Amino acid sequence: MKKYDINNLTQKALGARQFSQAKYSHFEVGAALLAENGTIVTGCNVESSSYGLTVCAERVALTKALSEGITKFTAIAIAAKDGEFCPPCGACRQLLYDYAPDLDIILTNGKENKKYKLNDLLPLAFEDTQLG
């Protein structure tokens, strides 16, 4: 696994949080996805009045990266409200696993960071090998 600057990545996630479109929940989240080539792609949550259409910051960052041809990832930092840690939801865990099962997950509360492996957050993940 390549070395990377966790503080830079978490700062990018905190910066992305300011663009959050959370007018219903007021729960603002930012994410910064680090590609193997060093590119950092950010995302924020985008809510809909039809709650099921809401898209999390992690999935925004991942789809932005994939749509630009970036397909190999090292880590993602996630920032929510100051003072709180926000792990990825189940849908985000699955989509991230589909594209980067060995991803480092870094949660920040604005003052300290916690680091996890995606594999540890999603044990017994559904995999493409199970599709037949």
In short:
With 132 residues, this protein is an alpha+beta fold.
List the helices and strands and how they pair.
Layout: H1 6-17, E1 30-35, E2 40-44, H2 57-67, E3 73-79, H3 90-99, E4 104-108, E5 113-117, H4 118-121
Task: Write a concise keyword list for the protein shown above.
4 helices; single chain; five-stranded mixed sheet; 21% strand; globular; 132 residues; Cytidine Deaminase, domain 2; alpha+beta
The SSE order reads HEEHEHEEH
CATH top-level class: Alpha Beta
Number of helices: 4
**Overall pLDDT confidence:** 95
Beta-strand content bin:
15-25%
Largest sheet: spatial strand order: 2-1-3-4-5
Structural category is alpha+beta
Termini separation: 30 Å
Which regions are unreliable across 5 or more consecutive residues at pLDDT < 50?
Answer: none
What CATH calls the topology is Cytidine Deaminase, domain 2
Gyration radius, in Å: 14 Å
| Fourth-level CATH superfamily | Cytidine Deaminase, domain 2
What is the CATH-assigned architecture? 3-Layer(aba) Sandwich
**Helix content range:** 25-40%
Count the strands?
Answer: 5
User: Largest beta sheet, briefly?
Assistant: 5 strands, mixed
Number of separate structural domains? 1
Approximate shape: globular
